[in-house]
Amino acid sequence: MKVSPRDDVALMDGYHSPQVDVDVRLNTNEAPEAPPTAFTEALATDGVHSVAWHRYPDRSATALRTAVGALHGVPAEQVFCANGSNEVLQTLLLTYGGAGRTAAVWEPTYALHSHIARITQTAVAEGERAADFSLSLDEVARVLDEGRPSVAFLCSPNNPTGVVDPPDVVAEVLRRCEDIGCLLVVDEAYGQFAPASALELLDEDRPLVVTRTFSKTWSMAAARLGYLVGPTWAVDDLHKVVLPYHLDAVKQRAGELALRHREAMDERVERLVAERERLVAALGGLPVEQWPSGANFVLFRPHRPDGSVGDAEWGRTVWQGLLDRSVLVRDCSSWPRLEGCLRVTIGTPDEDDAFLAALEDVLT
Q1: 59 vs 309, higher pLDDT
Q2: What's the pLDDT score for residue 2?
Q3: What is the mean pLDDT of residues 334-348?
Q4: Cβ(89)–Cβ(67) under 8 Å?
Q5: In what order do the strands lie in the sheet with 330-331?
Q6: Is 288 helix (H, G, I), strand (E, B) or coil?
Q7: Rounded distance between C-alpha atoms, residue 24 and residue 176, angstroms
Q8: Who contacts 182 (Cβ-Cβ below 8 Å, separation ≥6)?
Q9: Are 197 and 188 in contact (CB under 8 A)?
């Protein structure tokens, strides 16, 4: 006998990204390089071997939170860690969202902001970004005034567009959120690739939290580790809601050890930013429309052979053509206003060359 889920869950589409065996996988914004060998060796010797397997892990993840706090110049009490930044988002919505409450988003943006909101029975107030995918303060005001959300999400650099919201715009959104008692969540999963961060706006008296992940710049997507930096009252609230012992001992230790390799991470980010600019320049010579990116990916829309703007059908054709050449990118046509758009992760120079060659072959 099949047991039915909640009616709203039954109507939902899950969040999926194809996992396909290809030579070049550039669809999920993973780091193209593995972490330093010194990290993996330390994890094997000072991590796994030191775990007291018969005991529960530190429920408060004190050592990890202290290390993350030191990275950002704040005490551990301002840090919340979880199983990837998606669990951070889920815990935020379980804490500040729920039935009778609303979350605000401005599309197109990271799909899980609204998806997790709906899973937690939080209503979603949707606004739109401008034609260039920048954030209009008039549209922000409209959504906040009409929706009266308890949580508002900004993703900067924005996924999947790559657009970075200017610091003065983020500050103004925060001011308007303060006026209505709304928590502003700035999702900085790609923050290290961008020139500015909302971390500079953090204050104990401001309703602002900033989320980050180890998946991208720390080359630890397999670990599923993320965190939030915010006021102590927000961190205290989240710890009331999250499940006990949700972070295993090995993951906590892995996060601590990774943070000892800050210099290697910074160098990796520099290489990726330089490679991003090379890829952007190469795309400029192909029949595509692209958008400025402050992340480790680029959003582009292939033109049809006659020069006209591509639609969802043509985007899917190009996506399949790349896949036929063993290159996997992300088809973003399901995102609002992104018909015919594809998103390519910045890979190694060899991977990017393979992508560019395949794309040119498909388009010509």
Answers
A1: 59
A2: 78
A3: 96
A4: no
A5: 288-290, 297-302, 342-345, 330-331
A6: strand
A7: 44
A8: 104, 144, 148, 149, 150, 151, 152, 207
A9: yes
Q: How far apart are CA 299 and CA 86, in angstroms?
A: 22
Question: What are the boundaries of each domain within the chain?
Answer: 7-35+263-363, 54-260
Q: What is the pLDDT of residues 216-271, one digit of tens each?
A: 999 999 999 999 999 999 999 999 999 999 999 999 999 999 999 999 999 999 99
Q: How far apart are CA 136 and CA 106, in angstroms?
A: 10
- Alpha carbon distances (Å) from 136 to 149, 168, 254, 341: 17, 12, 40, 22
Neighbours of 125 (CB within 10 A): 19
- CA 355 to CA 346: how far, in whole Å? 10
User: May I ask the CATH class of domain 54-260?
Assistant: alpha beta
**Average of pLDDT values for 114-128?**
97
Distance (Å, rounded) from C-alpha 199 to C-alpha 186? 9
CATH of domain 7-35+263-363: 3.90.1150.10
With b meaning 16 or more CB within 10 Å and e meaning fewer, what string describes 193-221?
bbeebbbebbeeebbbbbbbbbbbbbbbb
Structure tokens at 289: 């429309």
Helices (H), 209-261: 232-241, 249-258
Position 17 pLDDT exceeds 90: no
Q: How many CA atoms lie within 13 A of 133 on its CB side?
A: 26
Average pLDDT, the chain: 95
- Summarised one tens digit per residue, pLDDT across range 21-47 is 899 999 999 999 999 999 999 999 888
Tell me the residue ranges of DSSP E strands in 77-229: 79-82, 102-107, 123-128, 151-155, 183-187, 208-213, 226-229
Query: How many other C-beta atoms are found inside a 10 Å radius of the C-beta of residue 262?
Result: 11
- As to burial, measured by CB atoms within 10 angstroms (0-12 exposed, 13-18 middle, 19+ buried), residue 122 is buried
Degrees, nearest 5: CA angle 178-190-203: 30
Helix, strand, or coil (residue 295)? coil
CA dist 81 and 253 (Å) reads 12
Q: Is the pLDDT of residue 289 over 70?
A: yes
Of 284, 291, 201, 228, the C-alpha closest to 87 is: 228
* Token code pair at residue 179: 């006026």
